[in-house]
Amino acid sequence: MHAPETILLPPTPWSRGFHVTAKPFGARCNLDCSYCFYREKASSLYPQTAVPRMSDATLEAFIRDYLASQPGGTVVFAWQGGEPTLMGIEFFRRAVRLQQTYAAGRRVTNTLQTNGTLLDDAWGRFLAENKFLVGLSLDGPRELHDSYRVDRGGHPSWHNVMHGLGVLKRHRVDFNTLTVVHRRNVRHARRVYEFLRTAGSDYMQFIPLVERRAGPAEAAHGLAHGAPRDGRDGLVPRVLAAVEVAPECAEPRDVGVFLSTIFDHWVRRDVGRVFVQNFDAALSAWLGLEAPVCVFQERCGAALALEHNGDVYACDHYVYPGHRLGNLHATPLADLGHGVPARSFGDAKADLPGVCRECPARFACNGDCPKHRFIAAGEDEPGVSYLCPGYREFFKHIAPTMERMAALLRAGRPAADIMRGN
């Protein structure tokens, strides 16, 4: 199952390279999570009879080109889906061998985002031996997780995910957790956080679910899940007269309360022990640094998506024909990643309505992800993020503490010293 992961990016994407999320098995998955934004690709990108499996030739071309395109001494490969473990261990063994062949002395690391249901001891040994960092999709305790994360027969997945988590822990595989914040778990913030903490997660991502329900006109064009249509720049989705979100989405203000509740608990006892990506991104903003996650950067366009056949798209959330940059078998990956279409896509994110430009939280939010901007802001203006009310309250809530934490770091003290006053 593909969770809406927030992409970690270098601070200055154009000068330091771009990130590619590789999908070797495309959108295919052994789960059928009702909120998955990528599952529609299985019908829109490939014929029903086709199995979207990355060939050895495409794998080698990707690894060769990606290593050649990346500056610096460390290159990170990110494997996702769908469910990438459906490719089998041998595929990833080949990937590691090819990385060693083309690394030219540089350090290579791998991340794997998985639903965890297919992990066994063979996987555990492989991931540990090759030092993969695994992102595990886990939405909380059993009944909260199983609300939407089910297999193709409608059966719950929590038990199998927890078995996979046990494999990772038994083999001492480094892992973090990705939790989708949705209508069922949004009012259980403290419970979700404590569950993840007890499960052994010391690095957490909380990703608010924002998926549009396709209207009749969109559905007729195959544009489900909020695909861009008639936008000002082809990046921001059309502004809606009425909010049309999927029923699994939480209310924006509830998302703000969820994050604020976890923050209050975290800052009392877990700073420096548990790392929460959402809070790390906020602290970067208070320090005057570029956000380490794509949704809060001023511009995007440096987080590409690679489909199984070598097609490269401007973003994981924009795998639509209008945002296809090309194919790495025809054009070097570096040219696709640094080309005018990718840059134009990224620059469009900075087109904000007046209400965003004047917002005191703009330095931390930067308008959120463009795919979320479908709420009317004013006549002939781009839309604002569906999550705006929640983020605005969250950043306001944490501001005094963030100012103190930033002051501690500037003084050469650890951020964990904030707990001495709480």
Give a count of the beta strands, DSSP E runs of length 2 or more: 10
- Name the average pLDDT: 89
Strand order of the largest sheet: 7-6-5-4-3-2-1-8-9-10
- Radius of gyration (CA) equals 21 Å
What oligomeric assembly is this protein in? Answer: single chain
The percent of residues in helical segments reads: 25-40%
Look at the helices and sheets and give the structural class: alpha/beta
Low-confidence stretches: 1-15, 216-234
Describe the global form.
Answer: globular
Largest sheet: 10 strands, mixed
* Separation, N- and C-terminal Cα atoms: 39 Å
Number of helices: 16
Strand composition percent: 5-15%
Compressed to H and E, one letter per element, the order equals: HEHHEHEHEHHEHEHHEHEEEHHHHH
Textual characterization of the structure:
- The chain is of the alpha/beta class.
- It is 36% helix and 12% strand.
- Strands 7-6-5-4-3-2-1-8-9-10 form a ten-stranded mixed beta sheet.
- Strand 8 and strand 9 form a beta hairpin.
- Helix 3 (56-69) runs parallel beside helix 4 (89-102) and helix 10 (252-269) runs parallel beside helix 16.
- The longest helix is centred in the C-terminal third of the chain and has 23 residues, at 388-410.
- The model is unreliable at 1-15 and 216-234 (pLDDT under 50).
